[in-house]
Amino acid sequence: MIHDHDSLDKIVSYLSSQTSLSLCCIDDGMPYCCTCFYVLDVQRMAFYFSSSLKTHHASVMLKLPKVAGTVADQTRSVTHLQGVQYQGRVRLLADDEEKRARHLFCTSYPIAKLKKAPMWEIMLTTLKMTNNKLGFGKKLLWSRHD
């Protein structure tokens, strides 16, 4: 497994090229997952996504903000397999943070301007990328050290 600046560049490049993530939270001891469109904020190493407060996952995340999930290609070729597993803490954004995140999100998804659902941030704590394009089973790691 590799954990260095070059690894982070490869992970960021991959995450920046993708559009959707699986988002998993824990509801009363049971896992619950959904899929969301996202944008990556490289400066903060965070995902931004938009989701109504009326969703089940929103109510769960407000109670327990620890989340995990994946970003993955759909391919039948094992040699081209790439994907990222992540862990982080989610929070509902407000004020200037919400405006900044919404601007980034709507730049990637202009249709989102039509529906003003709340903006959320997943502050990433760990990333683990499998990248078989670099060699079968090649893992790239990143973790936040604040």
Describe the protein's architecture and organization.
The structure is a single chain. The protein is of the alpha+beta class and 146 residues long. The chain has one domain: Electron Transport, Fmn-binding Protein, Chain A (Pnp Oxidase, Chain A). The chain is built from three helices and eight strands, in the order αββββαββαββ. The protein has helices spanning 5-17, 56-63, 95-108, and strands at 20-27, 30-37, 39-41, 46-50, 66-72, 82-92, 119-131, 139-143. Strands 1, 2, 3, 4, 5, 6, 7 and 8 form an eight-stranded antiparallel beta sheet that branches. The chain starts with a helix and ends with a strand. Residues 9-100 form the Pyridoxamine 5'-phosphate oxidase N-terminal domain. Pfam families: PNPOx_N (PF01243). This is Pyridoxamine 5'-phosphate oxidase N-terminal domain-containing protein.
List how many beta strands DSSP finds: 8
What are the secondary-structure elements, in order, as H or E? HEEEEHEEHEE
CATH hierarchy class name: Mainly Beta
CATH topology: Pnp Oxidase, Chain A
Which geometry do the CA atoms define? globular
Largest sheet: 8 strands, antiparallel
If you compute it from the alpha carbons, what radius of gyration comes out, rounded to the nearest whole angstrom?
15 Å
Number of helices: 3
From the N-terminal CA to the C-terminal CA, the straight-line distance is 22 Å
InterPro entries: Pyridox_Oxase_N, Split_barrel_FMN-bd, UPF0306
Pfam families: PNPOx_N (PF01243)
Domain Pyridoxamine 5'-phosphate oxidase N-terminal: 9-100
Organism: Entomomonas moraniae
